[in-house]
Amino acid sequence: MLRNKPALKYCGLTVILSNPSRFDNMSLLSAGAGTLFNNLLRPQYNSMQCDVRLMEDKNPFLPETKCILLLGQAAMHEYIVETRNNTLNEMRGSPFYYKDIPTIASFFPQDAVDIKNYESELNKESKEFSTDDEDDEDEGDQKSHSGTRRANFAFWLSRDIWKCKQLLASKENKKWPVEQEPSYRIYPSSNEVITILANNKNNVMFLDLETDYEEQNLLCFAFSFDFGKTVYSVPVLNHEYRYSYSDLPLVIEALVTALNDNIVVAHNGHTFDFFVLAAKYHIPVRRAEDTMLMMRRCFPDIEISLGHCMSYWTYQKFHKDTDSIAYRTHQHLIDKLRYCAKDVFGLALIYKAITTYAKTIPGLADSISCANRSIIPYLVCSIQGIRYDQKRVDALKKENDELMIQYNSIIEILIGEKGMETARAAIKGGKKGLLPGSNKQCCNYFHTQLGYPVLFNSPQTGEPSLGKKVMFQLALKHENPVIKFIILYRQVQKEYGALKFRPWKDDKSNILPRRGDQTKDNLLEGLHDMW
Length: 531
Known about the structure:
Low-confidence stretches: 132-142, 511-531
CATH class of the largest domain: Alpha Beta
Oligomer: single chain
């Protein structure tokens, strides 16, 4: 059985792999995976100071072992029993203990260097489940960890190794530096909630909402004013969909006061929390900040879900699977309140960490501030609409029409009459459409008629596809002017499609409540719509 015993002085890190990679014939962590792993350990350590073994190797750990790094889902499930109902994508980066030794799981190094899931295809010994490319477009406050793109595996592996290095350098051996849990006030009295909300002004308020899925009815909200030291989790509707407090209108009125008088921080607030408050309940937020936008400014190409952010900035365990999906019993209510409170605690930790980090990068704090300043205008345009000059929009559309007609005419001249007839024949029946906007016609011309090699097949149909990125790749490989004019056509077509705006609503009948106009009646107008 392969094992890389430390050739130099043992640093205290034991690395356990799910299986050898397809390149591990003589030793573990060979080829590109070994180079990546060694680079991530440097400059403090290197792989020759580690004990690298397979998960089947049950030999005792070396006496000086300070940390265990599990690489691969199978290794994680083998050594951390409590993770067996979760995926590696969810539990990666969470701190655990195996026989009192700090333990953390992360991605298999060979997967982190492969551009595709070659291990499952080419390695007969692979024990890994498919963790292949999952687009992360919908990265809100998900109930399970949103997907991690394969291109980012190395980034997250780097962060998990960084956590190991921090522990190895710590004087307090065999102990994760986990943040102290706050004081959770679950289902506090209405008087306590009203007092806290009404008496905090010009402070930072961390907020999270929980709603049902169909109507976005507000089930509960949690908040903190002291950076997560005390978190209040407040139900709005109980499990019978009735008022959770007899004086709920006063609780909501106090919430509005707090939202009006403080800087409100949420994760994905610009498309969920702040939007729900304003659009459904007519409760605006005056000063807003969003840790999702802040994370995006720090790392533009990296996943930004709350679960990912917590795994990067904190030592908190994954908790996104603790929410009660059902809402039919009192226990469901309590579970949701605890889940919501945990989100606020994580939110506060993330905000504090990003704010500190931003000060170390020139210009980053200003970039984050710019993103946060855009939240309120974005919400206003989303809900109220936007004022625009219809004549100017019509003029732009006319110009784009003329450009697309000219580009298409040039393309047809370059291809020729016979080539166009063959390309159009790829569409059976119905409207043929113009070649630049038709994937089938483009594929017929470039792949069938010209014989260009297929660069990409659609995962859904298995057929060749020439989307935006692939068309640019085609342009790099072939000096064909048709490709350039198709790209120009599609750019103008996309701009044309974007020239649609939500009209500004009638100021007299549909304006949002102004500061000073929030009475108990109009504040609860949206709330009463739920029953």
